[in-house]
Amino acid sequence: MERKALLDEVKYYFTDxxxxxxxxxxxxxxxxxxxxxxxxxxxxVHPDSLEAIMKAxxxxxxxxxxxxxxxMAPKSGMGxxxxxxxxxxxxxxFQWFFQKDVGLRxxxxxxxxxxxxxxxxxxxxxxxxxxxxxxxxxxEERALESYFKSDHFLKGLEFPVMPTTNHMHINVHASxxxxxxxxxxxxxxxxxxxxxxxxxxxxxxxxxxYRGKLVFMGQEPEVVFDIGWKFASEVVIExxxxxxxxxxxxxxx
Length: 253
Ligand SMILES: [Zn+2]
Ligand SMILES: [Zn+2]
Known about the structure:
Mean pLDDT: 96
Low-confidence stretches: none
Helix content: 25-40%
Strand content: 25-35%
Bound molecules: zinc ion
Distance between the termini: 36 Å
Number of helices: 7
């Protein structure tokens, strides 16, 4: 693409486009730690440059980028600036498809037919209403404690700190409320000397349907990892060994 046209298009996107403005509007959610956003664009701009422009924009707005931005390739043809977090705002993923004749613009569709998706605390509380979570007694406490000392969980913590991986999911079946999973997971992380900024409850697409997950925003080490949970009334919490997204890593994605 010709340089002047490219610059004009990129400049337009960040100063005047509806897509960027709506993304920034969604960033104003009063409960940033309970919110998450996906934006989908077509672009020919290198992700390093996109990251630099975005960071400069947030700096100017008084919301400097507050954590490391991961560069990922979630699926073929798609890249992601993952875990972008302006200070005090929700974290978001800026997903891009390479298009050589495009500077920067929202793409057609993206996820569930939308190029901008917003989840917040209200959404997740409504999402939870469909599940008859079991209440917590001594048996449930024991199962939670033992799961978070298990190899499945502890091995899962090793993946995202490897040089070849910057993000991953630990998959479980569970019937306890995600707030309880969060509580026991955070205690386990503390025992392991891992520090997190916060845990965000969220959903994600698995085979065309939204499933629950908890997103752990790591501080030390600064990696993001998720626990994906699928409701299963017959168990308290257990590894999910069947394939969810990737074939190669049973129990994890
Ligand atoms: Zn995301
Ligand atoms: Zn994830």
